[in-house]
Fold each of these.
Amino acid sequence: MSRQAALDQVEATSSVSSETLVRVEGCTKHFRRGSEEIRVLEKLDLEVPKGEFLALMGPSGSGKSTLLNLMGGLDRPTTGSITVAGERIDQLSRPKLAAWRARHVGFVFQFYNLLPVLNAERNIELPLLLTHLSRAERKKHVETALEIVGLSHRQKHYPGTLSGGEQQRVGIARGIVTDPTLLLADEPTGDLDRKTGDEILDLLQALNRDHGKTIIMVTHDPHAAARSTRTLYVNEGRLRAEPVE
């Protein structure tokens, strides 16, 4: 890690709260593939304080994206519990879990997942359609999100006319438009060149530092992980403080 990256981590850590926002206890996740049982996570424990920017690293197939999906309520553990903002999300019914996700979680994906037939502001508005906000209130939220990511001047543009970095900024704006409790990013710079990726990491750091967003990011890139306040490594379904050689 470079000296500047280390300083960035120290500065960012100062804003981390002592309050636990995410608690994963004794979590296992197994899948079945025909007659074979695939064991992805094994009795995993994790606590994420409010205001942390946590990076999860590990080889492909190690379980880091599975863990991210469990914390975002996109999947359920085989055993164990997951508590986010005081809510046992592993015990919620499907309708209640969907409503919980809409209120509390924003997602940022590697390949943006923008709808090509919708312009930037309409793509960003999508999560708000699951809320009870009026059209005027939704418009205000979208404008705020666009301003935060620096794309107010591109709100009417369609994904096909935006650069990769701009598309990811739209994706981040969509992720924060509901003012979520937790922002989950799965390889957010994986499809970008280094310069553009650095701009996206600058934005994520600003969301964490200046807006108090708790961020959990899956990445293969040590350069990206160095921007976080803490890095953990997933290997063979377990969390480790150091990478496995």
Amino acid sequence: MSNFTVIPALDLKGGVVVHAVAGDRADYRPIASPFGAADDPAAIARGLLGATGSSALYIADLDAIAGIGNHFELVRGLSYALPGATLWIDAGFSDVADCAFWLPLGATLVIGSESLAAVDDWQEIHGAFGENVVLSLDFGTDGSRGPEPLFSDPALWPTRLIAMDLTRVGTDTGPDVDRLKAIIEAAGSCAVFAAGGVRSAKDLAAIAALRAQGAVIATALHSEAVTQNEIAALLRERRP
């Protein structure tokens, strides 16, 4: 058995926390959450971290991903408000300059394959920042999104990888277990995190059984379909 991590996700759009559903970002609406109001990201972030027991918080800056601004100042405020947390930031990074803008926050940068124009862009980013970056392999209704070699050549993968199924985010469809299994088998010693479709503690257990390092979740926490007690029990079972 190996350690398993449940990383909560915070999706930011227009200054508030939104409910991400099926990758249709134009239709994302403010979240209804037991952890706090949509316009209070810090309260929601504290609730998510408390529920999961995680030291990491995944933040998707949807405005930055869409190229219509960013939440840099808001995220900087979160970094002060959550001093014990490691922020994983996905802000549509497409080149080294994009990444450098966010470096002052001292965060882990998530590089989404959908934001990369060419594999050379990824190699330059990885070369510049090493294992301080995480690669997200993004899948949509049209299949893999991004340069094809990133999906077919595990030699390009860093030590941490996210298998992101955008079509299943915020839905009640469950994770794509077959795809996740194939990625984990190809990844070797690379730590793989699943993202998209988790409905229940049973789904988390299925992901953990595949030897994934963890899962990134949001909707199931806000709906309380996955509870703090269930996560704690799963983590105890997975502890070596």
